[in-house]
Each structure stands twice: as C-alpha cells, then as structure tokens.
Amino acid sequence: MSLATHGSSALRAVIARSRFLAGVAAMTALAAGCMTSKVDETRQVASAIQANESIVILKKPQLEGVGTEGEFLSCVQENLGGELVHPQDGQSSKPSRDKDAVPFKIYGEQEFTDALFPWFEPSTAPASAAGLKSLLARPGVAERLAQIGVRYVVWLDGNTRKTGGGGSVACAAGPGGAGCFGVGWWDKESDYVASVWDMQTASELGTVSADVTGTSVLIGAIAPIPIITPVQSTACNRLSGQLRSFLLGSDLEGTAPDKAGGGGG
Predict the structure, then answer these.
(1) Which end of the chain is more exposed for a tag (fewer CB within 10 A), N or C?
(2) What are the two backbone dihedrals, phi and then psi, of residue 116, each rounded to the nearest 5 degrees?
C-alpha cells in the first residue's frame, strides 16, 4: 500500500469516527433532556395530619400483574419527611424542608401487617372505603389501631416499566484489542398513585399521582457508556413531595397545616 493510500484510509477513518462521535453527542444531548413528569392531586376530605400521629405506607395488593416495587416504597418512606418508627437496615428518613412540617411518624409496613394480622394481608385487605368501614366494625380492629397509633394508611399502586427502545451496541475482541460500537436506547415510564385513607373516619381523603417518562442511552465508544435517566427516583421525589404537602394540608387555604380538621382521637 502506498503512503498516499494509507494516509487516505486514515483520513477516512478519522472522518468516520468524528461523524460517529458527533452523532453520539447529539443522541446524548437529546436523551439527557428527554424526561417529562406530571404530578396530580385529588382531595375528597379536608383533613391534615397532626403532630405525633402516624401513617403507614403499604403496597396495594395485586391480583394480577406486577405490583409496586419494594425499593420504591422504601424511597417514599425516606423522602416523605416523617420519622421512621421501624427503619430497615441502612434506611434513614430525610428531614423535611417544609417550614410547616409537623413531626408525624411513619410506621413500618411489615410491623403494621403483623400487628393487624390477618386483616391487612394481600387476600383480606379492604379494597374500598366501604370495605374499610366493615373492617373497622370488627371487634378489636379499631382498638388495635389506636394502640399502635396509626391514623392514616397510604396505599401505593403502580410500577416502573420499559415502554420501548431501539438501536444496538456490538462489542468484539481481536488481536489489536477490544471495543464496542453503536448506540442503543430504551424508554421507561414510572407511573404511581398514592391513596390516603383515614382509619378513624373510615374514609378516603384523596389521591396523589406521579407519572414520569424518560429515555436512557447506551453508547458503544471503545467501552460501553451508559447514560441513565433517573425515571424511578424522579417519580419518588415528585410523589413524596406532593404527598407530604397533601398530608400536611398545605393545599387547604387559610388553614394551619397542623390543626386542619384532623379531629384527633
């Protein structure tokens, strides 16, 4: 091969690599900004948690399909701003930045279901306010709730799932070394709903929902480079913030969050 031919091949290789890297940069920039989120709240009863009252967060029982992930429930517990009564190993609550926050407590999921056994097992838990009223009418249930101090139950429903994707990344090894080439991407959606029940009045206070979608990218540039869009953690942060505001009654205009219609027992 002549020197001129070799130089021409090298130039083409440089140009091809430059174009690939430019495409990767464009894809990365597109993916980095490709996340959308939506948070909604619906309130049915004007009520707010009071200091030293407790809530428990439970995964809504699923007869079919995939239920809420345990790590998402733990994330909401940690980010809600309350004091964890039964923290899991390595788990700690993050203090609330809300100036109107009251020192409410978050009861452990497993400890609650054990204390109320068998009434909150997946096959027997109430699925509606009518079912909750029937449950509270059973001998010993209301007394047990008062004993452990849980006022509100928050049911979590939803999950994070892959909704699409494309592209590909190929990796190979040879005498001259190893490397990867290509671009792959995938779309994910985190869709969760939190329903809040008042165990004293046997009523549903309302719901808070968060829906977050985003695109992550895997770039093959010698070594695979993942660029992950934090869809689930974003949904956790958004849902936790809105749920905290809901529990404190921050949306109740002209009402102090720690005294709003709680009706304490």
Answers:
(1) N
(2) -105, 15
